[in-house]
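TL;DR need structure tokens for one chain.
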Amino acid sequence: MKRLSIIKFIATAGMVLVLTVGCADTSKKDEAVDVAAEVAAEATEAQNAIAAAKTANKKVQSVGFAWRDTGKLIKKAEAAAKKGDSKGAMKLASKAKSEAELAYKQYELEKGIDRTVK
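>> reply
TL;DR here they are.
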């Protein structure tokens, strides 16, 4: 009778061990997939931010009122995105877009001012 109890105990402990190891391995694979998806989403977000900055800068360039450093910021954002620094790229692209929008607002304000010499 004692042998049967020991065998049952060992079998139960073995099953618990197998289930624990199996579940732990699955969660690690899921985490790796989640991280990869997150990185891909950030990269896409960075590319969208860069595209928005380029569009805003083209708009202000069309009226001849672009600021000096906006294009440089866009190039830095593209370089950061190529290196895999999505957060840095988004930050730089956001700053570039803001500069372009401010430059266009400046254009709107200044086009109503008469600058002729009297």
